[in-house]
Amino acid sequence: MFNARITMPAEAKAGEIVEIRVLTRHPMDRGGQSDGKGGTVPRKILNRLTATYAGDQIFRFDMHTGVASNPFVSFTTRAVATGDIVFEWREDGGATYTRTSRLTVT
Amino acid sequence: MALLALPAAAQVKSGSEFLSPGMARQQADETRNPGFFWVEQGEGLFSARPPQGQACIVCHAEPRQSLRGAATRYPQVDAASGKLLNLEGRIEQCRVERQTQPAFGHESAELLAMTAYIASLSRGLPMDVATDGAAKPFYEAGKAFFERRQGQLNLSCQQCHDGLVGQKLRGDTISHGAGTGYPAYRLEWNSVGSLHRRLRACSLGVRATQFDFGSPEYLALELYLAGRAKDLPVETPAIRR
Fold first, then answer.
1. Is B8 exposed, middle or buried (0-12, 13-18, 19+ CB in 10 A)?
2. Taking residues B28-36, what's their average pLDDT?
3. Digit-coded pLDDT (tens) for B14-24
4. Calpha distance A24→B112 (Å, rounded)
5. What pLDDT score was predicted for residue B10?
């Protein structure tokens, strides 16, 4: 069910500030409901989004149960070198999802 | 009795007209409207080959052209069975009869995604359902449903959605009840849902009988609402509160 839409310019001049928008499809189930068998449904949310660019972590977003389903976040970074920006989400239970988006610096 | 002073169904406006400016911008922005995830999923399902039978795209090649405008003509009467079908009903019919696959089921993520995808191919085109001929009895039934007082609160749809449009109900603004944005991403649901899911919420609100998804009552009402919304553009996937 996970999916992501990353919107950012494909090209930028060195030193330019680029805006990166990340929309994610995820139910962000905060858990705690009855599972109908005497137990409760465990929490299952994306608890962290990180973005790595040119060897550095440029953004980290720790998410908690107050974040709604299908979270949207936008942030900016400075274009320094041509390369992939790697987005990684960490889900409760240990699963991770990765997307990359290329930024060409002119 | 201001409640009963009903203006003739004046200019019916799209639900988007009642959104806050911020939500209207979010709806128009593909990078921020989560409904497009369902459209994307539907696009994938449309060309995915099921275990037996053929993918949708084998018959409906070039869906951007061949299915453009299809959603503006639903609900419509199925010539073979004489039943009223909405877009969900037509997709399920195609899936069961032609692809010989088990039906997706109402409100399943797959059916919502397919419906959202096919409706999104008609974005911006004016609604144009047939309300005469074979569709006339259904349209009349839908109109009667819209005008009939029902539920513990003894309200008809018309009393609010014609008579009190623009006024507040709880935190929201009462609209004309045009379903042109459905399946829509509703903030209350945190998800995309069908028009019938929305109608069930309305029925619950006036403490009336909630009919099933795809029930004849809601199908007729959907046809009446689509007839009222004639010439309004399709906006699927819209964002609604």
1. exposed
2. 94
3. 999 999 999 99
4. 18
5. 63
Rounded to the nearest 10°, the torsion over CA A9, A11, A13, A17 is 20
Kindly list the strands in the beta sheet with A46-53, ordered across the sheet, starting from the edge strand earlier in the chain: A11-12, A96-105, A83-91, A46-53, A56-62
Q: Is the pTM of this model over 0.90?
A: yes
Distance of CA A72 to the CA centre of its chain: 9
- Listed by number, the residues of chain B in 163-202 with a beta carbon closer than 8 Å to a beta carbon of chain A are 190-191
Q: Which domains does chain A have, with CATH numbers?
A: 3-30+44-105 (2.60.40.10)
What's the CA gap between A88 and A19, in Å, rounded? 18
Write down the pLDDT at residue B11. Answer: 86
Quick check: A5 and B37 CB within 8 A? yes
Segments in chain A forming alpha helices (H): none
> For A6-26, what is each residue's pLDDT tens digit?
999 999 999 999 999 999 999
Q: What top-level class would CATH report for the domain B15-241?
A: mainly alpha
Q: What residues contact residue A91 under an 8 Å CB cut-off, 6+ apart? A: A2, A26, A44, A45, A46, A47, A97
Q: Please provide the DSSP assignment of B189-212 as one string.
A: TTEEE-HHHHHHHHHHHTT-PPPP
Rounded CA separation A84/A52 (Å): 8
Q: What is the pLDDT of residues A36-65, one digit of tens each?
A: 999 999 999 999 999 999 889 999 999 999
Question: What is the pLDDT averaged over residues B90-106?
Answer: 94
Known active-site residue B59: no
* Nearest residue, CB atoms, A3 vs list B30, B40, B191: B40
